[in-house]
Amino acid sequence: MYAAVDLGSNSFRLHIGKHDGDAIRVLKSVRDPIRLAAGLDANGNLSEAAMQSALACLRNFRAMLAGYELDAVRVVATSAMRVARNGAIFLPLAEQAIGLPIEIISGEEEGRLIYMGVANSLAVPGERRLVLDIGGGSTELILGRGQDIERVESFSIGTVKQSLSFFVGGRVDAPSFEAAILSARSHFEDAAPPYHPQFWKSAYGSSGTIRTIADIIAKNALGDGALSAASLDALKRRFIEFGHVANIDMPGLKADRAGTIVGGLAILIALVRELDIEVITPIEAGLRMGVMWDLYLRSTKRDRREQSVQGYLEKFHVDEGRARRVAENAVAMFNQLKPSSDALAKCLRWSGLLHEVGMAVSQTGYHKHAAYIVENADLPGFTTREQRIMSKLIMAQKGNLRKISDALAEPDFAKAVLALRLAILFMHARIEADISELRLRMKSRIELDIKRDWVAHHPTVSFWMEKEQEMWDEVGVDFSIRATA
């Protein structure tokens, strides 16, 4: 069984599901309308009230998760957490409340996970499709064929801000709606051409906002009953007749959603007009389903992160022989150092594989270029946190250690840095011997026993080792080396 927790800008949601044949069957689904994005103040900080409400919800989710025997759980946070200026303060409190690490994913990664959820829920292999997802803080457009994503973009426009900005005080009138629609179109117009109908056969709406709008239209027999321009305009007119969000009372719409659904409708109308969409099919799949499918694929060794790393090795013309030798030796030495957990092992391996991508920019300071690329690149499957860890490791691969001295206070990270630096050192010195023949320890000091014949057959080893001792000495770590038979 797998669990996906989605800390959205409008609602926090929990899915628990089980892989069953060719599908993932949802066993439990919970939604809590936290309105996190609405809790952002004028300075972009989450209010104390919003944070306390969110923490209470996360503690409740933790209790629910404890009632299931789960193979894997993943907690992702989206737009509101991406933009919150005090997110660094709130994040550790949130992780403590739910008892799990929280991954703040990029808009592009959010789009990929949404598409994965949709594609695996549709039994239409090879279909060219457009997927739209309107969230509380962002909107994603994803173009794909079957299981493959061809294009994904995230736009910083969502239901919460659109509702608060254009339907001030809850007032709903025609000028407000047209202003909200025009504003939304301005976000999409430049990016629209690749998403026009000639590039896809069917359009799907995956978000709760789109499903709710479709439900209101169907239950109130508006327009042609489908998610079309005519039906959306009919719903807009009905909302205007109510005059205020507090007055909206329609089958298919829960009272707690009225305040944001008006902004969502404006965005959806803008997309339909800008992309010239005739009809959208709502689908009960999206981010949380995509997260569970991603967990399932990782468990079956089909990790998208591996595909991303391989793609970058090819894109930046990296010498794969060198890269894989460094990665394998780094992991072998890291394991010999006996870290407290294997949490950093995969990031270390990927860092070893990508450590030379910066050479595509310049051979001078290539470690800095590589660190920047890895932290800021669009790497499908990776979280922001993983990319930052890899970036730090890659930055630390050579040169002084003072630049990451604060991070070295974490013992396992220091061991990963040491393993990567030594793996690169041995590669540069052309040592291809069995790494298991050396002995490496790191507690309060570093101790390395190296074969005497390694030094004899590779004259530069002594030079590089002396330099390495100096680098560790600068950050207060004693490094002793002993040559053995």
Q: What descriptive keywords fit this protein?
A:
48% helix, 485 residues, 17% strand, single chain, alpha/beta, six-stranded mixed sheet
Structural overview:
The protein has 485 residues and is α/β, with parallel strands linked by helices. The chain is 48% helix and 17% strand. It is built from 18 helices and 14 strands. The chain has helices spanning 48-65, 79-83, 87-98, 107-121, 159-166, 174-188, 208-219, 229-242, 258-275, 287-299, 304-315, 320-336, 345-354, 366-376, 384-395, 411-428, 452-457, 460-474, and strands at 2-7, 12-20, 23-32, 72-77, 102-104, 128-134, 139-145, 148-155, 202-205, 227-228, 279-282, 439-442, 446-451, 479-484. The protein has a 6-stranded mixed sheet, with helices on both faces. Strands 3-2-1-4-5 form a 5-stranded mixed sheet, with helices on both faces. Strand 12 (439-442) and strand 13 (446-451) form a beta hairpin. The longest helix is centred in the N-terminal third of the chain and has 18 residues, at 48-65. The protein is elongated and about 90 Å long. The chain starts with a strand and ends with a strand.
Strand count:
14
SS class: alpha/beta
Cα-atom radius of gyration: 26 Å
Q: Average pLDDT value?
A: 91
- Could you tell me how far the N terminus lies from the C terminus, measured between alpha carbons in angstroms? 52 Å
How much β-strand is present in the residues? 15-25%
Strand adjacency order, main sheet: 8-7-6-9-11-10
The biggest beta sheet reads:
6 strands, mixed
Shape: elongated
Q: In percent, how helical is the residue content?
A: 40-55%
Runs with pLDDT <50, length 5+?
none
Number of helices in the DSSP assignment:
18
